[in-house]
Specification:
This protein is α/β, with parallel strands linked by helices. The chain is about 45% helix and about 10% strand. Strands 9-6-8-5-2-3-4-12 form an eight-stranded mixed β-sheet, sandwiched between helices. The longest helix has 29 residues, at about 350-375.
Amino acid sequence: MRTDSSPGTLPAREHLPAGDAGTPVLDVVIPVYNEEKDLPPCVRRLHEHLARTFPYAFRITIADNASTDTTPLVAARLAAEIPEVGTVRLEQKGRGRALRTVWSASDAPVLAYMDVDLSTDLNALLPLVAPLISGHSDLAIGSRLARASRVVRGPKREFISRAYNLILRGSLQARFSDAQCGFKAIRRDVAQVLLPLVEDTGWFFDTELLVLAERAGLRIHEVPVDWVDDPDSTVHIVRTATEDLKGVWRVGKALATGSLPLDRLTRPFGDDPRDRELTGVPHGLARQLVGFCVVGGLSTLFYLVLYSAFRQAAGPQTANALALLVSAVANTAANRRLTFGVRGRGGAVRHQAQGLVVFGIGLALTSGSLAALNAAGDSPAHSTELAVLIAANLAATVLRFLLFRAWVFPDRTDTGPAPTTPVPTAPVPTAPAPTAARPAPAPYAWPHQAPTHLHATETTTSATTPLRPACPHSTDPGDTR
């Protein structure tokens, strides 16, 4: 499936429109498990910060991960006391499960989460969500490993964090700097399409979310943060690391086999409407040229190595045919995935068959060049043979790209404008004037009185019951665990 032609692709990002001041723009989730002591000061501090600094309406949602202490009662009291606070009860543990459940059911256009210990300085919250509100980015993460970050933590956690991110860079080619910082945000329209693809329900949820988003070409904004380690953290480092490594293997395998439909998440190349009105312009030509040149260069080296090896036991024509055949199969497979973005096994046999036709044309060019060289002189030097083959291969490469693009992997969207489906966006309230009192927020009722009981299962990809705060709200803070 082509990554740039699927009917499920996301529309261009847009700045969230100003609207009713009572509609929450930001929903900050705080996943908690047995946090009866830390929860009240966390929520109150977060609420005070957002009410004082955040220019839009907000909501704070406490996601109770099957706590066995009095955390549900504490959350219920906070929801009854503070209009912008709501609570949801899940009967199964898992930070990823909590975020998936609340984010899937939220009506806010920007979704975030924070750890309950508030290790991250709250002054980074507005810079975190601003690129999502403006339409500049799809996801935003706090980074403790950025150069401008200020971090206080022990050497053990520092080593584990940096080692884990090195593993991600080496195995999954991740370019973001900090996968596990408990300080992230995502646009709701992106979450609706991305969350069903994320399998993990625990601590690896963040990493899987970011890797899939990055591979799909979504824009991830990183914010340097000031972060102080919580010495009383209940995270089991060894068990968490083991589960994370299992997740890395699972996601890496899925990406390698092309089994993930990441085409659902692609954005238009430009967000300017004028870019999308142009007709007759090849899509992704520059990217395809770069990819084809890289694959072609590697294929040429591979071909020359094979030719030199086969030449030891066969004549020049036989060695050339065998080397070109093997390298052509590898070249078609590499261009199919890396240059033209075709994923999955569908059409692979047909593409290889068409690639062999292109190979035949290349064989005719290179074989003809060798025949002409041998006719011009007896027993040409091996270096002369290689020089002639390189020149012939360059000519064959240009023709191969044109045939790949126009015949083997044609861009189906070139035949006409792709249909666009408008995605409704929740209205964004305007910031109240500094001297004016905040307008009375509209009531927002939860399905049950706090604490709300919402049962989630492993196979649930979106909540069936909408989350609704128990009391009116005009602002809503965010903090997650």
